[in-house]
Description:
The chain is α+β, with helices and mostly antiparallel strands. The protein is 51% helix and 10% strand. The protein is built from 24 helices and 16 strands. The strands form four sheets. An eight-stranded antiparallel sheet has the order 1-2-13-9-16-5-4-3. Strands 6-14-11-12 form a four-stranded antiparallel sheet, with no helix packed on it. Strand 11 (613-616) and strand 12 form a beta hairpin. The longest helix has 44 residues, at 387-430. It is an enzyme of class 1 (oxidoreductase). Residues 550-664 form the Fe2OG dioxygenase domain. Belongs to the leprecan family. Its EC number is 1.14.11.7.
Amino acid sequence: MATLALLAVLLVLPPSPAAEAPLEPYDRLYDSGVEAYYRGDWASVILYMERALRSRAALHTHRAWCRGHCAGLTEPGPPGDPRPLKDLHFFRSVLHRAHCLKSCELRLLGAPSSLYQIAEELELEFSKRSPYNYLQVAYFKINMLDKAVAAAHTFYVANPDHLEMRQNLEYYKLMAGIKESDFKDLESKPHMEEFRTGVRFYTEEEPAPALEHFERALEEYFKADTECRNLCEGPYDYEGYNYLEYNADLFQSITDHYVHVLNCMQNCVLELAMQPGRNKAIEDFLPSQFNYLQFAYYNTENYTKAIECAKTFLLFFPNDEVMNQNLAYYAAVLGEDHAKLIGPRENVKKYIQRSLLEKELLFFAYDVFGIPFVDPDTWTPVDIIPKRLREKQKVERETAARITEEIGNLMKEIETLVDEKNKESLETSKTIREGGPLLYDGISMNLNSRSLNGSQRVVLDGFLSEDECRELQRLSNAAASAGDGYGGKTSPHTPNEKFYGVTVYKALKLGQERKVPMKSALLYYNATDKVRRVIESYFRLDNPLYFSYSHLVCRTSIEDKQEDRQDLSHPVHVDNCILNAEALICVKEHPAYTFRDYSAILYLNEDFEGGNFYFTELDAKTVTAEVRPQCGRVVGFSSGEENPHGVQAVTKGQRCAVALWFTLDPRHNERERVQADDLIKMLFNTEEIDLSQGAQTTAEAQTNQKEVSEESEKKEQSVETQATEPEAALTSQAEAMGESTTIDIADAAAEGGLQDPTIPGVSVGLSDKSEL
């Protein structure tokens, strides 16, 4: 009874994190948020996703606190006890600690810990910050733009290759009312944030504020290290074992689990040194902080602290030549006798002592039981590793290096073969077989590749009449007046011009809503497909072209910004690779739209000054051909490095054109174009509008518009619902962000909608926006 009474006293907990009774499992909250997203219930998406994030954070905080608190209950037995009593004293401590942990978690969580076992797949979604992908759409939908920006930025920091989110962020930057401070990482680690701030001040040669942030970074680092280590004391991961077949005895099972925990604790070094979106941790992160500190203290002439930090660094790397020289210099300035009294930081000495003991146990387990351990640190002394294991590791490293080299060489050979095959295939498909039929009466060839001093280039005239050009020009401005498109935004390529424009799908939607003439929207739709068919035929392509992106855009010069203007309306670039003019190369890799194969521009007017289109060599300076826009003229060309191009500054008036990009890969077929096709079918009850009928089809469609308007309004809801089905690529760009649009800065002033989150298991194609 006395023992039980003592135990009851021991289990009285000191002040702890606030309890949420009961804490709702975050997997359930996340699932509810996803369901709300499919329903378009944006308020519920925000409610559940925010609660899921808070629940996960609270679970980690409570568990870490309980494990840290209960660790103090483990006490060794009295010295001199015989072995059986020592075992009993040890397991009594273990039992008390387990009881403490169970009671603590039950009190703080409000439910048994087993309720919070989360599937590995879902935990991966949280590590990828997927909830913020949903949140940025939901916040945008209810016009809470500052929160939408923060959620988008938080997701993008951890997913820098996510092209759609990058485009969304570029769009947000152009929106009125958005501040630089809105772009914040809501999941940033305090120690990493302080460290980066310290480095920034350090590089700006401001040692005083740098020191403040470096010291705070260390303080936060050790807090995070403690929490990380506490969270390692979770269930055993059986990995290769089948749980039902696992039959280790008492001490073997204890060994397996404890070594698993120690391995996790050692890897906290990597966890704390990881930056979101990076695949590799900062090497020697903790020692490097003392390297910064010693030099920053030297710059403030605080030699006492400089010596302390230098000696602390040398605990990790005692033979570092530069640091030993620094220490000798600081000691000479301060005085040798005084310098000897200054020691390294005690908390770091204890940290290293503990870490080395853990490594010793892990290497022993590796050597004796074959339980793998990869040391995350470079500073570990060699004598910690058993000699037999050192020799084994040396052989393994040499073998691994040889295999890696052989695999690398093989991959290079494969890549070379694939590149050659792709190049050969591409060249074959593009084989200079231009000169195919132009398909429509009235279209004529003005200039071919030879006349334009290049390859895969053509200038065609007669695509539109003067009246049709004026109608499309009015459409662009009307879309901006209707609150759609991107009217009046400053061009991302120059501050000296503004642009107005709209995509095909948006134009059709505005026509359906009677905000612009449906006749104009249909003319736009038909004209773009007309260009696609002619380009495909003229270049005699064996495979069909698909729309990669298309939009109508008008650039207007800003009168008071034209004096002494030196820039271009659109700098020289290549449509499917990143142009390095100095090196005379074009790199076909992300973030370029590498899937683009052909490009075209349909011009609508010529009553402006400047704004000529021109081709150059790879140096982006040597002009090979120049084209003056005029109504109904099309410039078509292949999208590769053979055709660098740009647009001269528009110095007076407004320049309007329909910019089009095509791909031979159906996987990159533009989603908005598919939606436009579906909307046409819905509005006019036809499988396909006969584009060859041209104006006649347009006129008939306009006549029928009144008859179908009521039915189309009913069907619109059905179309929008279908867009959210899991089999599709989630919600379309336009519907994902309502009536707003995205402007892609990477390649041009383009317009489209913000992107929806990717549901696990659903493939979402990349958006492809840009503007010539």
